[in-house]
């Protein structure tokens, strides 16, 4: 009996027992899919995002040479200017017939640069020449009549003394002679006026030829055959000049010095000029004059500087940096050339002044030593060299060795004062 009851208990379903384990295959599939998506995203970021790099703007560091640290009392920037430059135009309004100049061509004083259509001027001269010939013929005619009248008056003077003719006849002959004398004077004056008019007509013909006022180099060709040129600005399509010539021997440097530092500059002061295009070429010079006027808006004073070297590489409107030098005393030890970088390229990282130098497509962090403040730029005595490219306003996320790419139009002008 007890055995049967125990058997029945064994056949009873235990509701409190845990359920049988379920399959985890679906969970593993989901986790694997998520992992694949993460890997794909990382690969895509590395291929497209990281490979492209951080978008930055850059600028070029400018070398300022030993002059910025050895014997230099002031650095300034300016431009090459020509003291003798002219836009050559015709003295009259006319149509261009021929142009004989091209950019870069050397011309001598008086050399023909262009000619205008001389049709009107030639017609005026022809008319003036005819009037002059007529006036001279009139003079000769009156002179011949006067000669006859004078002979007649002399003859009648003899006859009236012999009482062979009346006094009235003699008086009439004298009056005719005096009238012809006055007429001859008028004819001669008319001939002189006609001659002056002919010379003016010759000048009008000569004005159709445009000549160089001085020797120089043509820097611009402003007119073409068939165009109308005029010395007056009439608007429309009328040109005001044939071309521009520059006397290369009159080139000098014009710089603007802050009025707070103008006291450091003196006439005849030695300088060292460095062209932006040829930064390894140091050109000696001296201060010509300090213009006695200040620019109220920019708080600067213009200084003229003469260059002691003449070279075809020096052309107008070139950028130039000028170091004003103090008189040499004792030989000082040579110092390492400095550089000038935009202030926006210098940032603080971990208590240090650093800049990011771009080499190919990577930015390398470099610690720098900052010197003087020159306008919007900073003098770099250590850490940077002229010609290197630095990142402007580097983002906080930019690190040493990160890839970068220059934004479109992101190359700024070289550092300037």
Automatic annotation (TrEMBL):
Protein name stated in the entry: Efflux RND transporter periplasmic adaptor subunit
Gene Ontology molecular-function annotations: efflux transmembrane transporter activity
UniProt keyword list: Coiled coil, Membrane, Transmembrane, Transmembrane helix
Annotated family: Belongs to the membrane fusion protein (MFP) (TC 8.A.1) family.
Domain YknX-like C-terminal permuted SH3-like: 342-406
Organism annotation: Lysobacter soli
Coiled coil: 132-197
Source organism, top-level taxon: Bacteria
Pfam family, one: YknX_C
Gene Ontology CC entries for this record: efflux pump complex
Residue ranges of domain CusB-like beta-barrel in the record: 253-325
Every Multidrug resistance protein MdtA-like barrel-sandwich hybrid domain range: 84-230
Residue segments, region Disordered: 368-417
Segments traversing the membrane: 27-48
